[in-house]
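Team,

Forwarding the record for the chain on the shared tracking sheet. I've put the sequence and predicted structure together so nobody has to dig through attachments.
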Amino acid sequence: MSRLISIAICLLISLSAVASGERDFASKFMETCEEDTALQCVTVSPKMMEQLTKTGEGRSEHMTQAIQKLKSARIVTATSRPDDYYQMAEELLKKNSQRFKRFDSYHSNHAYGSIYSRQAKNGNTVELILLHCDSSKHKLVVVNLTGDIDDEFVTCITKNLDN
């Protein structure tokens, strides 16, 4: 019996090691800056995602369905040296250009940003990275979404970036 339990534990450890092999961009970025206390990373839990999917005023049914398809959301922020961190994030994305493709970019008087995506082998978007640097507020925000991300969801997000 104890031998069976030991084998089951070994299998679970092996499965979790394989599953964790595919890390998202936010994890990689935070790892490169692990000694830096100016960066903060918040992971939105599945419970909070569930709260986001509750239909509210001003949210379309499609947006609610799109949020339900997300597996995780991680938000990285920095309130000092935002331009430097933005550059570091872009360099990491470009270094992994076989994995992450630039989707779009924008620039205004006080802010600029880029959107990158990662597709699965079947062509579906499985990760979306939004880099946003606001020079007037001295703030960097990196939003990393994973899950089943459809084109309409991406379009909705990119339309709202100007606001």
